[in-house]
Amino acid sequence: QARPPSGPDYFALTECERRFDLDLTALHERYKSFMVQIHPDKLARRPADEQQELASRAATLTQAVGVLRDPAQRAKHLLELHGRPLGEEATGESVGAPFLAQMLDAREAVEEAKSEAELHRLDRDNDALVQTLSAALAGAFARRDLDEASRLTAQLQYLQRIGAEIRQRRE
């Protein structure tokens, strides 16, 4: 059941097309351009209320760019905009038993890795899965298959957690 989005449309705020496969370089350039316009040196002579408004817009834009740069957050935001918000935590049921078993094996492999080389290989393998899922997500959103997009977004969240565990072990 579709629900109206509860917050701002980060795609509109950043003047990006509402799609999963964004041009991140163009997003970064738009962000830099906006931030140059509201640099504190340029605002010094403006009234305090205008300075406050621009500071608020800058904070919102920074948040928008942060969400859009992260594939899982971008996918969750797209789902919200389509009225299909994904819960905070992806459930095993939403990703399927085979995928969940794969994630348990991956987590175990990370815990048992004994060398930097093993962790590097696990990180590379996880990144490849993230890329594959991201391509599938782009297709699901392009087809407006929101059930599939929800499932893939939940899977992507699991993969990102595995990636974070690998990076933590590598530190």
From TrEMBL:
GO BP term, example: [2Fe-2S] cluster assembly
Gene3D superfamilies: DnaJ domain (1.10.287.110), HscB, C-terminal domain (1.20.1280.20)
Keyword line: Chaperone
Keyword Iron (UniProt): no
Transmembrane region(s): none
Coiled coil ranges: none
Domain Co-chaperone HscB C-terminal oligomerisation positions: 99-166
A single GO molecular function term of this UniProt record: ATPase activator activity
InterPro entries reported in the protein's UniProt record: HscB (IPR004640), HscB_C_sf (IPR036386), HscB_oligo_C (IPR009073), J_dom_sf (IPR036869)
The keyword Chaperone appears for this protein: yes
Record-stated family: Belongs to the HscB family.
NCBIfam families per the UniProt record, alphabetical: hscB
Descriptive protein name: Co-chaperone HscB C-terminal oligomerisation domain-containing protein
Organism: Diacronema lutheri
